[in-house]
Design goal:
The chain has 462 residues and is mostly helical. It is built from 18 helices and five strands. The strands form two sheets. A three-stranded antiparallel sheet has the order 3-4-5. Strands 1-2 form a two-stranded antiparallel sheet. Strand 4 and strand 5 form a beta hairpin. Helix 3 runs antiparallel to helix 16, helix 7 runs parallel beside helix 10 and helix 14 packs antiparallel against helix 15. The N and C termini lie far apart (69 Å).
Length: 462
């Protein structure tokens, strides 16, 4: 694995680029060549760095990185949901595969949404902005109506359709991604973003409307994610520092008031860094989450062999699935999950900074902020570094609505990643040169494009 840089003078050279010669013009050589085999350790390290930079700079890298990391996260999440939910299902006199099958169904439907968003042009995303926004607001208004909204674990943010339950607040994040990006892109085109009134209105009031509807059901975790997305949009659009700081100060004061005035939220705040159980039983979930990581060690107790899910760790398959992963897969497993989220965040940032289209930039940045903020809040809660917010780990935890909304966000990211000219050309070349297409060309009859030549008169023999 690796490569060396041509132009080092000789095959066994150090591989250091010549002075005055730009690094971009140097040719990358495969690791199977004589130049690489005869190079020293330093030259091989430099060759590896050059090869990594060359690979990461390719136009199709963000697209493939998003697709690959999401596939790995979803598959690993299904494994952990099956392992973490078996005891809960047996306690409810259900099959051990009950929650696994429900999550698998959500994954299948989520992939359908992902493909639907990924394969449409960017212009279609801008067309559906307001229908999505109005549908989400209407659904959350229904949740707030007594007798219609369903309460789960103290929060009323569900709609019950009998066969399945639906959480509209999860799709408020998708609505803010599309609506906020389209709004700021149109204002940038008209040149009005330089005025603070146009910068904040109607972006901030629209976000506050979503937040108020969510907080009517008591979902503080989703509110924190929407606030993070709002600040992400303001940062990407280049809001003045004083305006940014003032808005951040208001948000901190409001969030502090919401936490202090509700007893169970204040109790969760006091559980940060807990190391022993309170005599009154407070911080039970946070403490056993920390215990799970301690029991896992380096390589874990083995998939399915965890003990905390046997009634000690609440929500082991949803909000605290990362703690279950730490117990059964150990430090190696948890670092792998964190690495996959880091790669996904890097790819999303690459999509945002690698385009000149303002809508693509803002939508990719907002979607990446959503996934990363939710992952950080969940991981911090499981590790005892943040208060328990009750948000699932995106693409990983059990939860149909969360999976569908996260898959929709990934579909939007894939659509934006393939919208650049370089990515379009690379995808077209891959499709043209694919092995499957070549094999089909050998088997299937070719379509005749020209008329068969008419045979002339027979040549007379002499």
């Amino acid at each position: 694995m690796g490569s060396v840089v041509a132009g080092s003078g000789r095959a066994g050279g150090s591989g250091v680029p010549e002075k005055g010669r730009p690094a971009e013009s140097l040719r990358v050589i495969s690791a199977t060549t004589t130049a690489y085999k005869s190079a020293g350790p330093l030259a091989r390290l430099q060759a590896f760095r050059a090869r990594a930079r060359y690979t990461l700079d390719r136009p199709l890298t963000p697209y493939l990185l998003i697709a690959g990391t999401v596939l790995l996260l979803v598959v690993l999440g299904l494994m952990m949901v099956f392992s973490a939910s078996q005891i809960l299902a047996l306690g409810q006199h259900r099959s051990t595969q009950f929650y696994f099958y429900k999550q698998l169904l959500a994954v299948v439907l989520g992939f359908a949404l992902l493909l639907g968003f990924a394969l449409v042009p960017v212009a279609v995303l801008r067309v559906i902005v307001y229908p999505v926004m109005l549908a989400v607001i209407g659904a959350m208004v229904l949740v707030a109506i007594p007798g219609i909204g369903m309460e789960v674990n103290g929060n009323r943010n569900w709609l019950d359709f009998g066969v399945f339950q639906f959480q509209p607040s999860e799709f408020a994040k998708l609505a803010l991604v599309l609506w906020g990006a389209d709004l700021l892109a149109r204002k940038q085109r008209t040149g009005t973003l330089g005025e603070w009134k146009h910068l904040l209105v109607p972006l901030v009031p629209g976000t506050l409307l979503l937040i108020v509807l969510i907080m009517l059901g008591g979902d503080m975790g989703t509110t924190m994610i929407l606030v993070a997305m709002l600040f992400g949009l303001l940062w990407m659009v280049g809001a003045p520092l004083r305006l940014f700081v003032a808005t951040l100060g208001v948000a901190v004061v409001v969030c502090t008031a919401l936490v202090v005035t509700v007893p169970h939220r204040a109790e969760r705040l006091s559980c940060i860094g807990v190391t022993k159980l309170d005599p009154g039983g407070a911080c039970f979930q946070a403490l056993h989450g920390v215990y799970s990581f301690g029991l896992g060690g380096l390589f874990g107790s083995g998939l399915g062999a965890g003990v905390e899910k046997w009634g000690q760790l609440p929500e082991a398959h949803t909000d605290f699935i990362f703690a279950t992963t730490g117990e059964e897969l150990g430090l190696v497993g948890t670092l792998s999950v964190i690495g996959l989220f880091a790669a996904l965040g890097y790819a999303g940032i690459r999509v945002a900074i690698g385009t000149r289209d303002p809508f693509v930039r803002y939508a990719a940045g907002a979607a990446t902020t959503w996934i990363m903020a939710q992952a950080v809040i969940n991981l911090g809660s499981a590790l005892g570094l943040l208060p328990i917010a009750g948000v699932p780990l995106p693409l990983f935890s059990y939860g149909g609505s969360a999976m569908l909304s996260a898959m929709s966000a990934i579909g939007v990211l894939l659509c934006l990643a393939r919208s650049s000219s370089g990515a379009k050309a690379a995808l077209a070349a891959r499709s043209k040169n694919s092995r499957i297409r070549k094999q089909l060309a050998r088997v299937l009859p070719r379509r005749r494009t020209t008329a068969r030549p008419v045979p002339g008169p027979a040549r007379r023999e002499r």
